[in-house]
């Protein structure tokens, strides 16, 4: 059976992923196995490279007016300084989660980066915990605090951490050189730090020279393995293009700089045109990666504007569409978005003081840059715009219509129904989100961890933990790897009005079952009706597991109803199924109500960012019924 599944993957993957991507990945693997990449990224001649870098480097962005910046931050400025103070004490919010001790030292062997990809060297734990501090998010934080306060402690802390990074990560050896994307993100961070700290007369000339050298060394890492980034068709390619273009502009006069600038711009434009759909959807089906893409585009267009460069109208139009799409998904009260798709805690342009799920800073800047309108009123989220030299606009963006979203006096709700043209992230067709007064009441669980012992290896991508129906505990698609789905489930929209949206998906077609879901607004809230219809003539019994992930609210169960406190909600389940129906409630992997053979471990968790999971309530309504037709409805009533 295992061999059969492996053969299916080998045959199906090139068809669904595309032969071009498959060929690029084959080139990458060939380069690894042949030793070509080892030869292309040897230990560099450090002093030769240093001697070729110009002594005088022009800043790639003008620094903002300090008084205006202080006014914009307002009451959030103490929080920024407190976080910077923590960095000086060796603590940082990895993945924008809780404050924790961090280090740039690691225990991994300092072998050539290609040895890690070939599994001839390895790290003991999740490599993301090595990569995250090396992305140098702390550099943005210390530079912002230094510029606002003038406190030299922040500059000294940066020098200490930067020197530690350089010492622990000799060029092209160790795990921090495995991914060229990581090198590209460091280029952005080091360029930002350079333009802020180099303004200080107390900043050592040696550190300024070392920063320029580090930017060059990271840029040299990118071109040899662009084939891997191309094969992925995702954020890797955009990040690496941005890294090349940034280094090219920053190191003007350095021999490879002009080629990097041209290559970066070309690849960036190609990637944007390829990865953003005609309706603004981003290829990775993830709100977090959608923001990452927009942030990198903001950085790219801002430094280009400063240099007198520009991008094609086709590219700018795609970025405008992507901005509108993300704005439509944003709760305008909280600034939060659904926790859709892969959520690895990335924030590659951390130029605002807000929690990880607050997207207002990025959306405000993107709306001004690509739509010529403000997304929100003025607020502390304008800080990112100031750093990127993006000006406020006269007009404000109006509410955008979305065919899969409903609005009412009780808030808003959305139904996920997508036709895939690139690989899916989560098996989440017909997932429903419900928002009320700025609070996300029907949650997407997120990701938690990519690399962990079972069962937590990217476990929250499955159908079971999304707000949809799982049949016989099978995913809507075939899990063929940690990040790979095959036999993609595609959806079709049947109806979309101001009060009702209906869609179906074909993920259970092989089982002979069609799942259709209708989301409707009602006078008191929302109704979600699921129809399970047989495509076969004979009656067959199946298990239908309807799941809702809800914040950890106080609740009371009354038969097939659940009463929640604060906000006061009545959730009622009904079915016309002929068999047994059972209600279960699970918090943080522990069963609170109901008994069954369901393994509770993965249920009742919400992960707002990478490596963080919080207790929530998984409400499972399980129906055993014979088709041809079973209807299950969830009625959400707001009691106040």
The name of the CATH architecture of the domain at 405-638 is Distorted Sandwich
Which band does the percent of strand residues land in? Answer: 15-25%
Question: Which structural class best describes the helix and strand composition?
Answer: alpha+beta
The CATH C-level name of the domain at 405-638 is Mainly Beta
Low-confidence stretches: none
Let me know the average pLDDT.
95
> How many helical elements?
19
Helicity, in percent?
A: 25-40%
Name the shape in a single word.
Answer: globular
Q: Determine the N-to-C terminus distance.
A: 54 Å
Examine the coordinates and then state which fold CATH places here, giving the name of the CATH topology of the domain at 405-638: Beta-galactosidase, Chain A, domain 5
Tally the beta strands.
Answer: 23
Rg, alpha carbons: 25 Å
Walk me through what this model shows:
The protein is an alpha+beta fold and 640 residues long. It is 37% helix and 19% strand. Among the domains are: 59-221, Glycosyltransferase (Alpha/alpha barrel), CATH 1.50.10; 405-638, Beta-galactosidase, Chain A, domain 5, CATH 2.70.98. The strands form six sheets. The protein has an eight-stranded antiparallel sheet, with no helix packed on it. The chain has a five-stranded antiparallel sheet with strand order 7-14-22-18-19, with no helix packed on it.
Write the layout of secondary structure elements.
Layout: H1 2-17, H2 19-34, H3 36-40, H4 46-52, H5 66-73, H6 77-88, E1 91-92, E2 100-101, H7 113-117, H8 128-134, H9 137-149, H10 152-168, H11 180-197, H12 205-221, H13 226-232, H14 235-250, H15 257-275, H16 287-307, H17 313-328, H18 360-371, H19 383-387, E3 405-408, E4 411-415, E5 432-436, E6 439-442, E7 469-471, E8 478-481, E9 484-486, E10 491-496, E11 500-505, E12 513-522, E13 525-534, E14 541-550, E15 555-558, E16 561-564, E17 569-575, E18 581-587, E19 590-593, E20 605-606, E21 614-615, E22 617-626, E23 629-638
Helix pairs in contact: 1-2, 2-13, 6-9, 6-10, 9-10, 9-11, 11-12, 11-14, 13-14, 14-15, 14-16, 16-17, 16-18, 17-18
